[in-house]
Amino acid sequence: MSGIKLAALTIVLVLASGLALGQNGGQNSGQNGALTPFDKLPDWTGTWTMVGDTVFDQATRVGKGNAWTPGVQEHPPYNDVYEKKYEAHIALRDAYKFPDTNNFCGIPVNYPRILNLPDAYEFVVRPDEFYIIAENGENAMRVYTDGRPLPPKEDLWGTYTGVSVGHWEGDMLVFETVGLKGDRDNDAILDRTGAVLSDAAHVTTRVRKIDDKTMQFVVTIEDPKALTKPWVVTKQFRKQKPGLFLYDYGCAENNRNPVDKATGEVLTLDPEGKPVK
Amino acid sequence: MKSLRVVLFVLLAAVPVLAHHGGAEYDAKTIVLTGTIKEFQFTNPHSWIQVDVKDETGKVVEWNVEWGSPNTLTRQGIHPSSFPVGAKGTFKIHPVKTGAPIGSFVGVKFEDGTTVGKFDAPDASQ
Q1: Are residues B41 and A254, on separate chains, in Cβ contact within 8 Å?
Q2: What contacts A4, CB < 8 A, 6 or more positions away?
Q3: Nearest CA to CA, how far is B71 from chain A (Å)?
Q4: Domain of B98?
């Protein structure tokens, strides 16, 4: 082999190596030192919808109705400070005044609230990443499964969905989420009861398909600022019939229920944008 | 209540499932009103049916009837053409508690007898 051919072959091999690594930037060492190939990943294709209503923690809920119904609430293992905060939010909710700015639309939901939405979902599995795509919002969250570690704590500033890395344990994806903004700006609630987390939350999530039609997320929340012990919440999703179309859900498109910033009350606007009285 | 071709069925119906944006405070009771569709806003985050209803004095009151998101409704077979402008029908709604002409859609029966939504569904309280 001539020197030129050898050099060309070397370049091709280097380029091919780079392509194989895709977007990993060279960090392709998964838990066992390599990315899990496509054919070894579980089949999570299809369209899914959440089982139950939008009360985040069905296991500790009390009261009948939906998350915004007076009397409905959960019992997270809050410490005294956050229990008082939650009770204050419940009182606001009972008065149809909400503690968050979600009604203004235009902001993404947080993690783990992204697992607590109406409308449809897709769960997209790739060797190097996992995506939660929620039609409602619409919202997306990514989990890196290419073996990279979480960023250093000092590099995090708190975002709605934080930053997540995960790995596969057989057919179960396990991922950790940090860097959540929590209740810093009063715009990241878990549901309409007004349950919140702090910016110290560290969430570990275990995802697997428990049967052909059911996806299960077991969410373990550790939050030394807000909780007295880990809060474990299970969310399930039911597979929908094949062939459904999903659409965008831009909340700000025609939100006729904005919150009056002055009073905190929810308005109803007429088609011209004036409050209906 | 401003409109009064509104027949009141005060039923202990289920609380409406809308308002996940923290929408208006809907009553659990169901009322019936007859009117003409002025507009159907098949838009996010919720759809709205604008219905002109004559009150007892003959004055036309525009009701604002809220329903689900277009993406969910379309998968249930509801489309922008489901509420044609000018169509007359009898609507069942959950009104807001304030008495304003706002409601959450339950169902409608059009003049030709076709229904959309849960117009004929038995009420849980009956």
Answers
A1: yes
A2: none
A3: 6
A4: 6-117
Sequence ranges of chain A with CATH classification 2.40.128.20: 38-253
Contacts of the segment A35-44: beta carbons below 8 A, 24+ positions apart: A35/A127, A35/A128, A35/A145, A35/A146, A35/A147, A36/A127, A36/A145, A36/A168, A37/A127, A38/A126, A38/A127, A41/A125, A41/A126, A41/A127, A41/A168, A42/A125, A42/A171, A42/A208, A42/A209, A44/A123, A44/A124, A44/A125, A44/A209, A44/A215
A104-152 residue pLDDT tens: 577 788 999 999 998 999 999 999 999 999 998 878 999 999 999 999 9
Cβ distance A249 to B21 less than 8 Å, yes or no, reads no
Classify domain A38-253 by CATH architecture: Beta Barrel (2.40)
Tell me the chain B residues in contact with residue A266 when contact means C-beta distances shorter than 8 Å: 21-25
A244 in B contact zone (CB under 8 Å):
yes
- B36 inside 8 A of chain A by CB: no
DSSP string, A76-104: --B-HHHHHHHHHHHHHHHTTB-SSSGGG
Taking CA–CA distances from B15, the nearest residue in chain A reads A65
The ipTM of this complex is 0.76
Q: How far is B110 from chain A (nearest CA, A)?
A: 23
Residues of B in contact with A120 (CB under 8 A): 71, 75
B42 in contact with A at a CB cutoff of 8 Å?
A: no
